Amino acid sequence: MRIDRFSRIDTLTYPGRFLCTVHVSMGDEPGMEPSKVMETIVADRDSLDGMAVTASGCDVLAIPSVHRLIREIRPKGISLSLVTPGSSPDALDDLIGAGYVNHVILQVTGPLDRDQERCIEIVRDHGCPYNLDIMMAPGRIDEDSLRPMATLYNDCARFVMRTYDPGKHGGILGNEKFKDKDAASLARSVKGLVRNATFL
Length: 200
Hints:
Elements: E1 2-10, E2 19-25, H1 34-44, E3 50-55, H2 66-73, E4 80-84, H3 89-97, E5 103-108, H4 114-126, E6 130-136, H5 143-152, E7 158-163, H6 180-188, E8 197-199
Helix pairs in contact: 3-4
């Protein structure tokens, strides 16, 4: 595992919060030095609401040594948000239970699968706040799927709806995108169903 990059100020991962974000990936190639990252976070802590850890090319929960990295980079007293698509509920349970994670940002691209549903059960059981972060792409999200999600997960700290853009997001969900007015209409469809909804 390596630290690929480090964002000192990030307002997009958790809208409304100022985070620093550590991007990790699998691999043995040299990355950023964890001690240097921690020093920077300590220096910036007065201007931060917390920090986030996310992964490139895989789910951060699939990295067995992520707990050791968190120990190396997280200063005491800093809240940590883990950004994950939720592919490994047991790993998430362990990280929250051991006190490594204070908040979860669950990234989804459609109705939740069983692993993602289990992750929601786990954060609820632990009393751990979570965001539901939805990438809205044609053929994956529509009003009939979005409204039930807003109802089922209306206890989330933030219900984030992001418009998928093939160019910006590397075509990972296909080559189609919603027209601006259609994406805005989708976002409006959850009004009154969930608190703290954010449309990006």
